[in-house]
Amino acid sequence: MSTNSPATPEPPHDCLICPRLVAYRAENRATHPDWWNAPVPGFGDPAAWLCIVGLAPGVTGANRTGRPFTGDFAGTLLYATLDKFGLSEGQFDARADDGLRLKGSFISNSVRCVPPQNKPEVAEIHACRPFLAGQLAALPNLKVVLALGAIAHQSALKALGGKLPKHRFAHAAVHRLHTGITLVDSYHCSRYNTNTGRLTAAMFEDAFAATIAAR
Q1: Helix (H) or strand (E) holding 19
Q2: E strand segments, the chain
Q3: Which one of 58, 84, 91, 98 has the fewest beta carbons within 10 angstroms of its own beta carbon?
C-alpha cells in the first residue's frame, strides 16, 4: 500500500459495527483470501485542499486492491480526471502499489466496507459517518469536498455540519457552507452512469472545474 495517506481515524481492519457488511466481507474473504477484504482507508495527500468522497468500495475494485477507486471502471475515469487537472503524479495502473501519488487531493468513501450489490443500508451509512467526519477534520488545509453521487453528498454534508434542505444534490452544484468548506456535487463516475449517458467525461470535468473554481 502507498504511504501517501495521513494518520486519520479509520475503522479497524476487522471492524464489527455493521453485521451485514461483516458477513459479506467474510464471504469474500473465504472466496478470495488474497483480496484486501476489509475497510478501505482513505488515500491521498495529507496537505490536501480537496477531498473526493465516493459511495463505498467496489467488490472487485477497492475491496480487492485496498485503495479507493482502484481496480474498477470508476477509478479509471476518476484518476484520469485527477491527472488532467494536475491533482496527481505518477502512472495510474489500477494497483495499490503502482506508485501513484495525489497532489492537493484526497479520496475517501461514505462507507468503508463493500456492501452487497454496491448498496449500503441507511444504518450502515450512519454508522460509518464518524469515520468520514474524522477524516475530513484531519485534513488541515481542506477547502473543498467533491461528493460523487447523492448518498456521498448527504453523508459529506452531514459530516461537515450542513443541512440537507438548504443544500440539494445536483450535478456540478456548488454549496458554500457556514463552516467555510465548499461542497461540490457530481454524478458518480460509475460504469452504469457513463454507459447510460447520465455522466460523460466532459460533465465530470465540469464538476472538477467547479471544484477548482471554488477553492
Answers
A1: helix 19-31
A2: 43-44, 50-54, 88-89, 101-102, 105-109, 144-148, 174-176, 182-186
A3: 91
Distance CA(114)–CA(190), nearest Å, equals 15
Q: 19-213: which CATH topology? A: Uracil-DNA Glycosylase, subunit E (3.40.470)
Tell me the H-state helices in 85-196: 122-137, 150-159, 191-195
C-alpha cell read off for 182: 465548499
Burial of residue 8 (CB within 10 Å: 0-12, 13-18, 19+) is middle
Q: What is the largest CA-CA distance in the chain?
A: 47
pLDDT tens per residue, range 176-215:
999 999 999 999 999 999 999 999 999 999 999 999 999 9
Identity (one letter) of the amino acid at 57? P
Torsion of CA 99, 50, 68, 123, to 10 degrees: 160
Q: What is the pTM of this model?
A: 0.94
The per-residue pLDDT for range 149-184, each reduced to its tens digit, is: 999 999 999 999 998 888 999 999 999 999 999 999
Stretch (H or E) spanning 62: helix 62-65
Distance between CA atoms of residues 190 and 159, nearest Å: 23
Q: At what angle do helices 150-159 and 122-137 cross, to 10 degrees?
A: 50
Give the start-to-end residue ranges of the domains of the chain. Answer: 19-213
